[in-house]
Amino acid sequence: MRATALFTALAAAALATASPRIAHLHYQPITPSTADAAAPLPLAEIHYDASTPSSATVASYEAPDLPADADRVRIGAWDAAAGAWRSGVSVTSAATFAKGYAPHLLLSVDASGTLLGAGARGVRIDAGATRDFGPQAVVAVGGAGETPVVNKPVVLVDGRKKEPEAEKTLLQKYWWVIAAVVLLTLTSGDK
């Protein structure tokens, strides 16, 4: 009995101190002639933990070498063995990596830490500020959204609740049928 309790406690402690995950981001320039698109190139390696998204760090970063005719860049996690993207891919402007901008690499992960998508945005560097101008990592952890409130009573402008209408009687509902039957009876011939 004590052995199972000890094993359970150790397993819970191991799960609580899960090691951070690593995301390898790649970029691919988009040129007007996309037929000769090259394989994506390494952009950054980001260490993150879904339980503490603010602790994400950029372990390595290689500034992209973009061709002159590339005005957009595709960013995501590339699987070289499969030759396909492993995550959702975003497209950003090539100006994101221009001089005067600090790239912020955005990761979208689920609650368990699985990488869902990646992107980048350029943040203009303020010349008067004294802060780190290098690439920054931003992790957005997805969760369950709000559920709608069903059967909520309607509230009028003056704060009163809308009163339900009174149920109509049989005569109020079907007076027109009775009138039609009477009209047909009176106008029909005696033949």
UniProtKB/TrEMBL annotation:
Keyword Signal: yes
Name of the molecule in the record: Cyclin-dependent protein kinase regulator pho80
Superkingdom of the organism of origin: Eukaryota
Keyword field: Signal
Cleaved signal peptide residues: 1-18
Annotated PANTHER family: ER MEMBRANE PROTEIN COMPLEX SUBUNIT 10 (PTHR39219)
